[in-house]
Amino acid sequence: MKINLVAGGPLNLIPDLQAFDGRDVEWVGIDRGVFYLLNAGIKPAMAFGDFDSVSEEEMAEIEMEVEHLKKFKPEKDETDMELALNWAIAQNPDSIMIFGATGGRLDHLMANVQLLTKPLNQDIDIQTEIIDKNNILFIKKPGTYNVEKIADFKYISFLPVTPEILGMTLGNFKYPLNDCHIPMGSTLCISNELIRGHGTFSFSEGILLVVRSRD
Protein backbone atom coordinates (compact mmCIF):
# COMPACT_ATOMS: atom_id res chain seq x y z
CA MET A 1 0.00 0.00 0.00
CA LYS A 2 1.06 3.57 -0.75
CA ILE A 3 -0.26 6.61 1.10
CA ASN A 4 -0.38 10.03 -0.57
CA LEU A 5 -0.94 13.14 1.54
CA VAL A 6 -2.22 16.35 -0.03
CA ALA A 7 -1.95 19.59 1.94
CA GLY A 8 -3.22 23.05 1.08
CA GLY A 9 -0.10 24.65 -0.38
CA PRO A 10 -0.26 26.79 -3.54
CA LEU A 11 -2.18 24.92 -6.22
CA ASN A 12 0.19 26.04 -8.98
CA LEU A 13 2.98 23.94 -7.41
CA ILE A 14 0.98 20.72 -7.17
CA PRO A 15 1.48 18.27 -10.06
CA ASP A 16 -1.30 16.27 -11.71
CA LEU A 17 -2.46 14.10 -8.82
CA GLN A 18 -4.10 11.59 -11.15
CA ALA A 19 -0.60 10.66 -12.36
CA PHE A 20 0.14 9.31 -8.86
CA ASP A 21 -3.13 7.43 -8.41
CA GLY A 22 -3.53 3.65 -8.53
CA ARG A 23 -5.33 0.68 -7.03
CA ASP A 24 -2.86 0.40 -4.16
CA VAL A 25 -2.91 4.11 -3.26
CA GLU A 26 -4.77 5.59 -0.30
CA TRP A 27 -5.29 9.37 -0.43
CA VAL A 28 -5.42 11.67 2.58
CA GLY A 29 -6.52 15.31 2.44
CA ILE A 30 -5.05 17.86 4.83
CA ASP A 31 -7.15 20.97 5.40
CA ARG A 32 -7.70 22.70 2.00
CA GLY A 33 -5.91 19.79 0.34
CA VAL A 34 -9.21 17.93 0.58
CA PHE A 35 -10.60 20.24 -2.12
CA TYR A 36 -7.55 19.72 -4.32
CA LEU A 37 -8.28 16.00 -4.24
CA LEU A 38 -12.00 16.37 -4.87
CA ASN A 39 -11.36 18.75 -7.77
CA ALA A 40 -8.94 16.19 -9.22
CA GLY A 41 -11.66 13.54 -9.14
CA ILE A 42 -10.11 11.70 -6.20
CA LYS A 43 -12.11 10.95 -3.06
CA PRO A 44 -9.85 10.94 0.02
CA ALA A 45 -10.12 8.04 2.42
CA MET A 46 -9.15 10.31 5.33
CA ALA A 47 -9.01 14.01 6.09
CA PHE A 48 -7.04 15.81 8.80
CA GLY A 49 -7.02 19.41 9.90
CA ASP A 50 -8.38 22.26 11.95
CA PHE A 51 -9.97 23.52 8.72
CA ASP A 52 -9.54 27.15 9.71
CA SER A 53 -8.93 28.00 6.04
CA VAL A 54 -12.33 26.80 4.78
CA SER A 55 -15.78 28.37 4.94
CA GLU A 56 -18.81 26.84 6.66
CA GLU A 57 -20.16 25.79 3.27
CA GLU A 58 -16.86 24.16 2.33
CA MET A 59 -16.71 22.39 5.69
CA ALA A 60 -20.19 20.99 5.09
CA GLU A 61 -19.01 19.64 1.74
CA ILE A 62 -15.98 18.01 3.36
CA GLU A 63 -18.17 16.35 5.98
CA MET A 64 -20.43 15.04 3.22
CA GLU A 65 -17.65 13.74 0.96
CA VAL A 66 -15.15 12.29 3.45
CA GLU A 67 -16.19 9.37 5.62
CA HIS A 68 -13.22 9.43 8.01
CA LEU A 69 -12.64 12.99 9.19
CA LYS A 70 -10.18 13.95 11.93
CA LYS A 71 -10.95 17.51 12.99
CA PHE A 72 -8.75 19.33 15.50
CA LYS A 73 -8.75 22.67 17.29
CA PRO A 74 -6.40 25.30 15.84
CA GLU A 75 -4.60 25.47 19.22
CA LYS A 76 -2.57 22.24 19.21
CA ASP A 77 0.99 21.01 19.55
CA GLU A 78 1.29 19.49 16.05
CA THR A 79 0.60 20.94 12.62
CA ASP A 80 -2.10 19.35 10.49
CA MET A 81 0.68 17.89 8.33
CA GLU A 82 2.38 16.24 11.30
CA LEU A 83 -0.88 14.73 12.52
CA ALA A 84 -1.57 13.25 9.09
CA LEU A 85 2.00 12.01 8.70
CA ASN A 86 1.92 10.34 12.12
CA TRP A 87 -1.21 8.47 11.06
CA ALA A 88 0.33 7.50 7.71
CA ILE A 89 3.50 6.14 9.32
CA ALA A 90 1.42 4.05 11.74
CA GLN A 91 -0.21 2.30 8.76
CA ASN A 92 3.25 0.97 7.74
CA PRO A 93 2.85 1.66 4.01
CA ASP A 94 5.47 0.97 1.36
CA SER A 95 5.81 4.69 0.65
CA ILE A 96 4.42 8.09 1.57
CA MET A 97 4.22 10.91 -0.98
CA ILE A 98 3.43 14.42 0.23
CA PHE A 99 1.94 17.10 -2.04
CA GLY A 100 0.97 20.69 -1.29
CA ALA A 101 3.76 21.03 1.27
CA THR A 102 5.89 23.67 -0.52
CA GLY A 103 5.40 27.33 -1.38
CA GLY A 104 3.64 29.91 0.73
CA ARG A 105 4.97 30.35 4.27
CA LEU A 106 8.64 29.49 4.74
CA ASP A 107 8.11 28.29 8.32
CA HIS A 108 5.64 25.70 7.05
CA LEU A 109 8.03 24.64 4.28
CA MET A 110 10.97 24.19 6.66
CA ALA A 111 8.82 22.32 9.16
CA ASN A 112 7.53 20.01 6.43
CA VAL A 113 11.07 19.24 5.25
CA GLN A 114 12.07 18.39 8.82
CA LEU A 115 9.08 16.07 9.10
CA LEU A 116 10.75 13.86 6.48
CA THR A 117 13.07 12.67 9.27
CA LYS A 118 10.19 11.14 11.26
CA PRO A 119 10.39 7.59 9.85
CA LEU A 120 14.19 7.58 10.28
CA ASN A 121 13.93 8.81 13.87
CA GLN A 122 11.55 5.93 14.58
CA ASP A 123 13.85 3.48 12.74
CA ILE A 124 11.07 2.75 10.22
CA ASP A 125 12.01 2.12 6.59
CA ILE A 126 9.34 4.00 4.65
CA GLN A 127 10.34 5.96 1.56
CA THR A 128 8.86 9.39 2.29
CA GLU A 129 8.97 12.19 -0.28
CA ILE A 130 7.77 15.75 -0.73
CA ILE A 131 6.83 16.33 -4.38
CA ASP A 132 5.87 19.45 -6.28
CA LYS A 133 6.03 20.41 -9.95
CA ASN A 134 9.71 21.33 -9.75
CA ASN A 135 11.19 19.26 -6.93
CA ILE A 136 11.37 15.85 -5.26
CA LEU A 137 12.76 15.82 -1.72
CA PHE A 138 13.67 12.89 0.51
CA ILE A 139 15.91 12.07 3.48
CA LYS A 140 18.55 9.35 3.79
CA LYS A 141 20.55 7.90 6.67
CA PRO A 142 24.14 6.59 6.19
CA GLY A 143 24.51 3.94 3.50
CA THR A 144 25.00 3.42 -0.23
CA TYR A 145 22.19 4.28 -2.62
CA ASN A 146 21.45 4.00 -6.33
CA VAL A 147 19.84 6.92 -8.09
CA GLU A 148 18.24 6.74 -11.53
CA LYS A 149 18.34 9.52 -14.09
CA ILE A 150 15.05 11.41 -14.51
CA ALA A 151 15.06 13.61 -17.59
CA ASP A 152 12.65 16.18 -16.15
CA PHE A 153 14.58 16.45 -12.86
CA LYS A 154 18.20 16.51 -13.99
CA TYR A 155 19.64 18.46 -11.04
CA ILE A 156 20.47 16.59 -7.83
CA SER A 157 21.55 18.38 -4.67
CA PHE A 158 22.69 16.97 -1.34
CA LEU A 159 22.25 19.01 1.84
CA PRO A 160 23.22 18.06 5.40
CA VAL A 161 20.35 17.90 7.86
CA THR A 162 22.77 17.21 10.70
CA PRO A 163 25.83 19.43 11.45
CA GLU A 164 27.98 17.41 9.05
CA ILE A 165 28.07 14.56 6.56
CA LEU A 166 31.11 12.29 6.60
CA GLY A 167 32.43 10.06 3.83
CA MET A 168 30.35 11.62 1.05
CA THR A 169 31.07 9.80 -2.22
CA LEU A 170 29.37 10.34 -5.58
CA GLY A 171 29.74 7.97 -8.54
CA ASN A 172 28.68 8.64 -12.16
CA PHE A 173 28.05 12.31 -11.36
CA LYS A 174 29.28 15.31 -13.34
CA TYR A 175 31.07 16.47 -10.19
CA PRO A 176 32.26 13.31 -8.40
CA LEU A 177 33.33 13.15 -4.78
CA ASN A 178 35.35 10.65 -2.81
CA ASP A 179 35.11 10.36 0.98
CA CYS A 180 34.41 14.08 1.54
CA HIS A 181 33.39 15.96 4.66
CA ILE A 182 30.34 18.16 4.01
CA PRO A 183 29.53 20.58 6.87
CA MET A 184 26.15 22.24 7.23
CA GLY A 185 26.23 25.47 5.28
CA SER A 186 28.39 24.09 2.47
CA THR A 187 27.11 24.45 -1.11
CA LEU A 188 29.58 21.91 -2.51
CA CYS A 189 26.82 19.43 -3.39
CA ILE A 190 24.33 21.79 -5.02
CA SER A 191 23.12 21.30 -8.63
CA ASN A 192 25.01 18.15 -9.56
CA GLU A 193 23.98 15.97 -12.51
CA LEU A 194 24.20 12.31 -13.47
CA ILE A 195 26.43 11.60 -16.48
CA ARG A 196 24.89 8.18 -17.15
CA GLY A 197 21.54 6.50 -16.69
CA HIS A 198 22.22 5.89 -13.02
CA GLY A 199 24.69 6.75 -10.30
CA THR A 200 25.43 6.15 -6.65
CA PHE A 201 25.85 8.22 -3.54
CA SER A 202 27.08 7.07 -0.16
CA PHE A 203 28.11 8.49 3.20
CA SER A 204 29.10 7.11 6.59
CA GLU A 205 27.72 9.59 9.14
CA GLY A 206 24.94 12.17 9.31
CA ILE A 207 21.48 12.63 7.82
CA LEU A 208 21.19 13.84 4.24
CA LEU A 209 18.47 15.73 2.38
CA VAL A 210 18.35 14.85 -1.32
CA VAL A 211 16.65 17.32 -3.67
CA ARG A 212 15.93 16.49 -7.31
CA SER A 213 14.99 19.61 -9.27
CA ARG A 214 14.30 21.13 -12.63
CA ASP A 215 14.43 24.75 -13.79
Task: Offer a quick outline of the entry.
With 215 residues, this protein is α/β, with parallel strands linked by helices. The protein has helices at 33-39, 56-65, 80-90, 106-115, 118-121, and strands spanning 2-6, 25-30, 46-49, 68-71, 95-99, 127-131, 135-140, 143-148, 155-160, 164-171, 177-183, 192-193, 198-203, 208-213.
Write the layout of secondary structure elements.
Layout: E1 2-6, E2 25-30, H1 33-39, E3 46-49, H2 56-65, E4 68-71, H3 80-90, E5 95-99, H4 106-115, H5 118-121, E6 127-131, E7 135-140, E8 143-148, E9 155-160, E10 164-171, E11 177-183, E12 192-193, E13 198-203, E14 208-213
Parallel strand pairs: 1-2, 1-5, 2-3, 3-4, 5-6
Antiparallel strand pairs: 6-7, 7-14, 8-13, 9-12, 9-14, 10-11, 10-13
Structural overview:
Strands 4-3-2-1-5-6-7-14-9-12 form a 10-stranded mixed beta sheet, sandwiched between helices. The mean pLDDT is 94. The protein folds into 2 domains: 2-133, 3-Layer(aba) Sandwich (Rossmann fold), CATH 3.40.50; 140-213, 3-Layer(aba) Sandwich (Rossmann fold), CATH 3.40.50.10240. It has 5 helices and 14 strands. With 215 residues, the protein is of the alpha/beta class.
CATH class of the largest domain: Alpha Beta
Q: Which series of helices and strands comes N to C?
A: EEHEHEHEHHEEEEEEEEE
The structural class is alpha/beta
Estimate the mean pLDDT confidence.
94
Helix content: 10-25%
Keywords:
215 residues, alpha/beta, Rossmann fold, 2 domains, 10-stranded mixed β-sheet, 5 helices
